[in-house]
């Protein structure tokens, strides 16, 4: 098993990471910039880069790589044709320049794609421009033309998105400078320095034309992009200081974020529990996290053998990200939606997203050693074995990675194995996410809080995001093609207020473009511009206003809780802090808990309603199916009579079955108002959720089980269980009451699972709370399990992250500690055992103890 981040973080504080960058090589080797041993390092860096993106002669001869090289060649030919047909104000046909920064980025991308084809191995590139210096000079001429007319004058540039100018263009240009280094030296030797000077000038969110680690723009994946570009620029210019500074800056991304000791005020990055945050408060492993992993691994490949990093710690840190950050979020080859921010509205599937992670793992395995390398390779084989979509390695960036992937799959000595157990509960409390996995299913839960954003909208993406962090869940069933159950078609066809798990007001909401006629709220006088902090805070990714979101984990079991609240925009508007024309939406009320066991997920909701008097829908679950799929809805009423179909009824249990897909989910109704079952056929365009999506109509059968509350209805509570892969016999067995609800109020929610001998609770308010054998003072999450060997295991956490201690009492026979985490004190009290957990600066993590 690779070294866990949890083990690694203690050995790699930020200071140690900074020390991983070597001093200037010139000082170490006695050489000068561009000469001697240092010049050899620059040459090696460029050669590594060319090999990473274009391949090598050995790799080019591999049959597995032919499709990739042919694709590169075909793309380059089409770009050259578009270049031949360009009109006035265009470098490529149909890409007009002058006012559109996306078109300018696209023009640089097309040039890069041509340059890339000229550096692929000639023997492996049929009918392509490989090795064609004439084509390379056309690319260079294109670079000159773009610089002279649309890029070189910084007083005219920097319109549109900041990312275009500080990262997007520079990424394409920096790679082209490396790919074409020899021809540039022979044909236009001054061009590299000219472009680097311009790229420096466009770092307007930087400092002194360089990275600014105190800038909110130069963090996480964005910082990795910028510094990788600067490493390449330094190699091309022979600028050792630039490379060394860029490597040192990038290494700061590897340091685990300590929310109580922030470096440069940065909250973006990986946390000790495997969480990843970008944009200060967005759970983002599945998008920016992928980008960061890819960029760091590319840096490892580029710097290999150059001496710019001291040892293998980059590999070990990235490996830890894979183990603790990515692997729990990938179920049978599908990367979960709960960590994709606005990227959830893109048509790329969870399988395609995983392919990027697979390439990074393949590359990491080549730099790891021993058992670590075997585990990484085994994970690659496992993902290939369990995925319901065949991974197309031609989608990899590097031809070298394609060949290495083929070698891993062909090696029968490598055991296909996940990087974690099949039964696990993962509390990503630092980003308000929970993943609960069993061999037959995975349950993914998205929450929000005063620390974490409710959603992310930006740039016309994720247009209707309002409830995605309000306890929305995805229940993935094993053996299924998840594109038929979730992904873009789920988001397209499921109304936003009926996302699975959500309590929402029944009202019409308008998207940002509908409200303001632009992709953002434009009011510079009040601080609202396209990338201002006010825009981020109130429009793009607003946080909730309540601190309670998190839970406790005890081995493979867990409990999570969440207090639904209005977001910061609504709160600010009520206090007069936002302009009159700024539109805000009020949330509904609910306090919720999830108790995550083996065969079921028990959900308690209390205080469900709306203080403003609106109708409210609580969606217990929503599932989509193809129009041709055969669905059956069967159940039993509380009086024992059978039931089927749709409607509102006092159900004891319900079973949804998709016979076509051999998939089923059961619902056991433990308490609350009668549920409503619906089955509709919905058609909607994918463009409804993202402006740049194709206007492709999607038709799905839409199943939902909800609890409907009319306007002005009193607040209510409900308790139910989700039972993945349920049979009717299994659902009928719940009549024997293996589950007991001990409390379900806005103060306390607690459940007992008799079969597992587990008692679990969430306490939400000050005061003493009692549930079964457990007493807890103040807010907290507690999970207690009585084991067959006579011991008792307990887990405690502070989901508010604001308490110094959480005191718990277990009533009954006095016990003593057999084992306990640091920070757990166990003592005796009359009638039981008192446990005091020091939760200060624990950021929601669980503390455990075993008692006898």
> Would you count the extended β strands for me?
35
Radius of gyration: 28 Å
Helix content: 25-40%
How would you classify the helix and strand content by structural class? Answer: alpha+beta
Q: pLDDT average, as an integer?
A: 94
Short description:
InterPro entries: Chondroitin_lyas (IPR008929), Gal_mutarotase_sf_dom (IPR011013), GH-type_carb-bd (IPR014718), Lyase_8 (IPR038970), Lyase_8-like_C (IPR011071), Lyase_8_alpha_N (IPR012970), Lyase_8_C (IPR004103), Lyase_8_central_dom (IPR003159). The chain has 852 residues and is α+β, with helices and mostly antiparallel strands.
Question: Which short descriptors sum up this protein?
Answer:
single chain; 852 residues; alpha+beta; nine-stranded antiparallel β-sheet; seven-stranded antiparallel β-sheet; 35 strands; 32% helix; disordered N terminus
